[in-house]
Amino acid sequence: MAAGDQGDLGGYDFRFLPQKTFSSLSAKETTSRLRQWSMLGRMQAQAFGFDQNFQAHRKDDFLMAFFKDPNVIPNLKLLSDSAGQWITLGFASGRLRKI
User: Fold this and answer.
1) Rounded Cα distance, 86 and 44, in Å
2) Residue 66 CB: number of other CB atoms within 10 A?
3) 84: how many CB neighbours lie within 10 A of its CB?
4) 26, 20 Cβ separation under 8 angstroms
5) How many helices (H) does the chain have, and how many strands (E)?
6) Residues 65, 12: contact at Cβ < 8 Å?
7) What is the pLDDT of residue 49?
8) Where is pLDDT greater, at 95 or 38?
9) How many angstroms from the chain centroid is the CA of residue 68?
10) How confident is the model at residue 2 (pLDDT cuts 50, 70, 90)?
11) CB atoms within 10 A of CB 15
């Protein structure tokens, strides 16, 4: 499957936005609460853009296209269960399942 060719998943094209910042996550009150709940350093925000209008009735196609997109797989960071280290979706792709 070529990049951007999502077959019957709606043809969404996603792009990683590494320069996007989330100032609310570094606000003093936020970091204080995250530290209080032992979540400081265990949460990360990442931004991705996409090329179509979101349609709620096609949310399942949107999510599957997102997690299978060649621009998302090497960039989306996940906190590993076992080691507690940040890994990319590419290392954890075998665990993607529908709930």
Assistant:
1) 9
2) 19
3) 9
4) no
5) 3, 4
6) yes
7) 95
8) 38
9) 11
10) very low
11) 14
Give yes or no for residue 15 having a pLDDT over 80: yes
Whole-model pTM: value is 0.70
Q: Which of 16-20, 23-27, 38-42 has the highest mean pLDDT?
A: 16-20
- The C-alpha atoms of residue 33 and residue 43 are separated, in whole angstroms, by 12
**Locus of tokens 């090329």:** 51
Question: Could you tell me the two tokens for 81?
Answer: 């269960």
Return the structure tokens found at 2.
């070529």
Residue 63 confidence (pLDDT) above 50: yes
Q: How far apart are CA 96 and CA 63, in angstroms?
A: 11
| Length of the chain counted residue by residue | 99
> Which amino acid belongs to residue 93?
S
Sequential DSSP letters for 43-80: -----EEESS---GGGHHHHHHHHHH-TTTTTT-EEE-
Contacts for 70 with CB less than 8 Å, ≥ 6 apart:
3, 4
What letter does residue 6 receive in the DSSP assignment? -
